[in-house]
Write a structure and sequence with these properties.
The chain is an all-alpha fold and 932 residues long. Among the domains are: 61-159, Serine Threonine Protein Phosphatase 5, Tetratricopeptide repeat; 346-395, no CATH class. It has 54 helices and no strands.
């Protein structure tokens, strides 16, 4: 049964009226979409676009309209606008499987071939087989464009392995082979395509193309003629055919074919150029010149990057400009097609652009290559030095300080050594050096401040506060010391002490921004949001571009429930940040990981990693973004790199190990944990994670031994027993696992232990026994929301909907806005034929309108209530968000069939059936039989 989170049951009149208006607009938007779909099916793309714009004006989040708009724009040749629509569709929640292929096509049309390889949304892994095949062919074309024949053919072969009978896998091979001058292989591929589909116009065209290149003109012409008969609208065939006729001087025969070509593709610059040739041959210089001008006007509107892989168009525009005596305009196109410019001073300008992005590694590569040719360029050497510093390579500084210490053991040398070690990520060694420096000389303020930051980062607030007291003795009038003391007290939850410290800093330095922001943070944690907002507005008046102020405004926005505003403030903070300022980058990546879409998180993480390419925390966050984008292999590699960069910092290594376990890299996690335990052997969290890693690696005996040691050391903690339960389950010893979970619950009676016991009992004893166990717990803990909902789910699963209803209603009395309880209650009410299901389902969806399961519940409730238009609108939305859910596809099919769209309904039912058995499988089969 679908689950998720929801809105209070009692809503204001304004909300109810607003929903009514929204539903009215939604119905109109749905009708506009259906009309647009009919137009699109008739190839009236312009008309479809108009209707879709109207629909999106009424409902900008209508996913079906957004996707169809992208497809219509693509068919209309508006690739850039199509890309925007597809990207927005994914952002709004459309599953990437629905738009991956047309998105790749839109990028290819714009000359963004490399983006096709790099964009995680366009990775074939994780997509349905049919989509994988199409996407692999799109990638093959892109690889071929970039000159990577090997990967192009590999992509074609990967596609063919999915379905060897698919003609397009053979057709896609032909142009790749032609570009690589492998004409025999190209001909074999074209002939195989014709065997699979003898009446394919495209297959005839492709074979003709091979013969054309081989100089077998008569045979090529015959095949082109056959292709045109099979498909009168095949533009490429008409172009090739006219080209041969003109080459042979058969202008009279070419003219009628040219007229057809112009009607088929009036804006095609190749057709316009052929028109210029015909006009020139007939002595009509004015028409020829006008045609050439038209060519340049068409192509000059395209950024040169958009046609950089279309050598034919590059040369065509160059020739057209040349023919118009526009040599300056002709040169860039011709040069772009023919030459490269390595080792020229342009490299310095390019490096400056990379540094501004910033993309320091790329700048470094460009400058090093340039300096190999011009080693005496001082400006380039200075720029290269700047990139080295920005990349955080402090080895030289460390070596210098170590040499200085061998000559003289001075606190200031140890401070410098500690700081250089800290900046290079060696915080364990850095802490030791800084402690020695501060102990020897408490006036080493930099050492003390760095120590406080290290202690706070590791959660050692008591040690941090002790150092701040020592710093204040040496620096009683330093506002900066009061600032760091305020931060330490805030982390220690001494809110009054933190406020006092920040106030003292302000008295010493009136207007000190960091102290004002510290007071804002105190207001936020004490939920004094109005006071924080007032203070922040005053701060921003004179600090509109201050990164810290923008960051705190984001924190305030999120804390006060204004989540979308938080993202905007973080974007502004990142934009205002320089190369060394990374806090906003970390926060923005984290925000997108929590709120989606995953592609945005990856984009933000890349920006962060460009600033901190060797930082363990940055690498870990980047890996999380990779995992969120289903790139587990990439995440594992990044986490391995992060573990190496983390030196022996136990907290960081533990966090990395957790992510490695989530990425199914138990071996990598064990490596990280071994490093952590080598410096902190009694670290409980690390021991627990190691037991989990050992079990995942198949060493149950070792995992059990470690778990028993944890029980010996921590007999009153549940964790050791939970680990033993996991070991027993791995051995299929379910009774033993149940016994260990009982012991865990006896050790720590809480929601977590009772839920583990409930789930084990439900799975391996009986649902009835699990419900009795949970109800016994609820008699003593009637406000346990988690257990209440679990009992409701169990009762609903047994078909006892009336009893389940009572559980969900009890849960909602505790928390009226619980989305999961609202959604499940709506589902139960639909099973009970209760008309109140619609209201509850709409409330649930209002809490999280991007959740496919909630949208599905609301759509189905609208269908049962008789609102076909809104039901269709919502169910299309849900299906686009989660196409792998057969229940959603079945619901959509029911409403489509009711609306008379039987073909589309059959497609949805067939797709649902391929996904396996589901709750409504039998009903789906019966419906499918009625649609034959």
């Amino acid at each position: 049964m679908p689950t998720a989170r929801k809105r209070p049951l009692l809503l204001s009149l304004a909300f109810v009226v607003g929903c009514a208006l929204a539903q009215a607009d939604g119905g109109k938007a749905a009708r506009l979409y259906e009309d647009a779909l009919k137009r699109f099916e008739r190839h009236d793309h312009a008309g479809a676009i108009v209707q879709l714009k109207n629909a999106l004006q009424l409902d900008k989040n209508q996913l079906s309209a957004r996707v169809l708009m992208g497809r219509a724009l693509l068919a209309n040749g508006e690739a850039a606008n199509a890309e925007v629509e597809f990207v927005e569709a994914i952002r709004l929640g459309v599953n990437r499987a629905e738009v991956a292929v047309p998105l790749a096509q839109s990028l290819s049309m714009q000359g963004k071939q490399f983006q096709i390889f790099e964009d995680t949304r366009l990775k074939p892994e994780g997509l349905p087989a049919a989509v994988q095949l199409r996407l692999l062919l799109a990638r093959a074309s892109a690889y071929s464009d970039t000159g990577d024949t090997r990967n192009a053919l590999r992509s074609v072969e990967d596609a063919r392995r999915i379905d060897p009978s698919e003609i397009d896998t053979w057709l896609a091979e032909v142009p790749v082979r032609i570009r690589n001058r492998q004409f025999n292989e190209a001909l074999l591929a074209a002939e195989q395509a014709l065997k699979l589909k003898p009446d394919s116009a495209e297959a005839h065209y492709q074979k003709a193309s091979v013969l054309h290149v081989l100089g077998q003109i008569s045979a090529a012409l015959a095949l082109y003629e056959r292709a045109m008969k099979l498909d009168e609208a095949h533009v490429e065939t008409h172009l090739a055919y006219v080209g041969i006729l003109l080459d042979q001087g058969r202008d009279k025969e070419a003219k009628p074919v040219m007229q057809t070509l112009q009607s088929l593709s009036p804006g095609d610059p190749r057709a316009v150029y052929l028109q210029a040739l015909l006009a020139e041959r007939s002595g009509d210089a004015a028409t020829a010149k006008a045609a050439l001008k038209n060519v340049t006007e068409i192509l000059d509107l395209q950024p040169i990057e958009a046609i950089r892989f279309r050598q034919q168009l590059l040369i065509l525009n160059g020739i057209a400009h040349f023919g118009l005596n526009e040599y300056t305009k002709a040169k860039p196109y011709l040069e772009y097609a023919l030459r490269q410019q390595p080792n020229t001073p342009v490299a310095k300008l390019l490096a400056q652009a990379y540094m501004a992005e910033p993309a320091m590694a790329r700048a470094e590569e460009v400058l090093e290559n340039y300096l190999k040719a011009r080693p005496g360029d001082g400006q380039a050497m200075l720029m290269l030095a700047s990139t080295q510093m920005s990349l955080g390579r402090h080895a030289k500084a460390t070596a210098l300080m170590q040499a200085a210490l061998r000559a003289k053991d001075a606190p200031e040398f140890r401070t410098a050594l500690g700081l250089s070690l800290l900046r290079s990520g060696q915080s364990v060694d850095a802490t030791g050096e800084l402690q020695k420096a501060f102990t020897a000389d408490p006036k080493q303020t930099y050492a003390g401040l760095a120590l406080v930051n290290i202690y706070l980062r590791n959660g050692h607030t008591a040690e941090a506060l002790k150092v701040t007291e020592e710093l204040l003795k040496s620096n009683p009038g330093a506002p900066g010391v009061f600032l760091i003391q305020g931060n330490a007290k805030l982390q220690a939850r001494d809110h009054a002490g933190a406020r006092n410290a920040f106030d003292k800093a302000l008295k010493l330095s009136p207007g000190l921004l960091d102290a004002q922001l510290g007071l804002v943070r105190v207001d936020i944690v004490t939920k004094a949001f109005d006071a924080a907002d007032k203070r922040m507005k005053g701060i921003l008046k004179g600090n509109e571009r201050n990164v810290s102020a923008l960051f705190e405004m984001a924190v305030l926005s999120e804390a006060s429930g204004k989540n979308d505003e938080a993202a905007k403030w973080l974007d502004s903070a990142v934009e205002a940040s320089n190369q060394k300022e990374t806090r906003a980058n970390f926060a923005l990546t984290g925000w997108h990981l929590r709120n989606g879409p995953p592609a945005k998180a990856l984009e933000a993480a890349k920006q962060l990693l460009a600033k901190l390419p060797e930082d363990a925390d940055a690498l870990q966050l980047y890996a999380q973004a990779q995992a969120a984008n289903n790139d587990l292999a990439g995440a594992r590699n990044t986490l391995t790199n992060a573990s190496r960069r983390a030196a022996f910092e136990a907290p960081t290594l533990r966090a990395i190990a957790r992510d490695q376990l989530r990425a199914n890299d138990a071996g990598g996690a064990a490596y990280s944990l071994e490093k952590a335990l080598s410096t902190a052997p009694n670290d409980l969290d690390a021991q627990v994670l190691m037991s989990i890693a050992e079990l995942q690696m198949g060493d149950a005996a070792k995992s059990e031994q470690r778990a028993r040691k944890i029980i010996q050391d921590y007999p009153k903690r549940a964790i050791g027993y939970n680990l033993l339960a996991d070991v027993a389950s791995s051995r299929n010893q379910h009774a033993a696992a149940l016994e260990q979970l009982k012991r865990a619950h006896e050790a720590e009676k809480n929601t977590q232990t009772v839920m583990r016991l409930f789930n084990q009992t439900s799975s391996h004893v009986s649902v009835k026994a699990a419900i009795e166990l949970a109800q016994s717990w609820l008699r003593a803990n009637p406000k346990d929301l988690v257990v209440l909902k679990a009992v409701g789910d169990a009762l609903a699963g047994t078909g006892n909907f009336a009893a389940a209803r009572k559980q969900y209603e009890a849960a909602l009395k505790l928390r009226a806005d619980d989305t999961e309880a609202l959604n499940n209650l709506a589902n139960v009410l639909t099973r009970l034929n209760d008309p109140g299901a619609l209201k509850v389902a709409e409330q649930a969806m209002a809490r999280n309108p991007k959740n496919a399961l909630l949208v599905d519940t609301a759509g189905w409730a609208n269908h049962l209530a008789g609102d076909k238009d809104r039901a269709l609108l919502l169910l299309r939305d849900a299906r686009l968000r989660e196409p792998s859910n057969p229940e959603i596809r079945y619901h959509l099919a029911v409403v489509l069939a009711q609306a008379g769209r039987k073909t589309e309904a059959r497609e949805e039912l067939d797709a649902a059936a391929k996904l396996g058995v589901f709750q409504s499988s039998e009903a789906a089969k019966k419906l499918r039989d009625t649609l034959k």
